[in-house]
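To whoever picks this up:

The parser on our side crashed when reading a file containing two proteins. I've narrowed it down to the boundary between the first structure block and the second sequence. Both blocks are reproduced below exactly, byte for byte. First block:
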Amino acid sequence: MIDDNMAQVARARPRRKLFQPAELDVGGGRRRVHVLDLSETGAQVNGVNPPALGSFVSLCVGEVRRAARVAWVRGQRFGVTFVMPLTANEVGAVLVIGTRAG
């Protein structure tokens, strides 16, 4: 389980801004979202009908998929904290997808 101390560490990681289409799996239902920023430990996501605070979800960007917990929700934006951090290679792979699309 992710506690407040872990959330503070997650926010301390460098964030990379992007606008990358992604898929969010919430309780077996999939929906399209956009990742607005990304770090090894979490992401800021934008999407219609965001999942409830505390929900466990799966975020997929290209070939990178990670289980996460919804840490905050504000309107259509929400933050997720990854259950297991992304590797530097996984973050790099997501950033490469974004530069190809742009």
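<<boundary where parser fails>>
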Amino acid sequence: MAALAWLLIPLFAAIGAAIWGSWASRSRTTEDIVELDGYARFRDAMDKIHSRSGTV
């Protein structure tokens, strides 16, 4: 029974590594695009406010 336990440790480690690897290599492009669009809207809003008030 102890030998079975020692064989299960690497099995669980391999499963954990596979899960972590799939999570770490996921595509993040959609999150970045949404974030950059929000920043562009913020920048445009700040430009409008500053151009209206006459300050730089």
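After patching the parser it read the second block fine. Residues 29-53 form the longest helix (25 residues). The radius of gyration is 25 Å.
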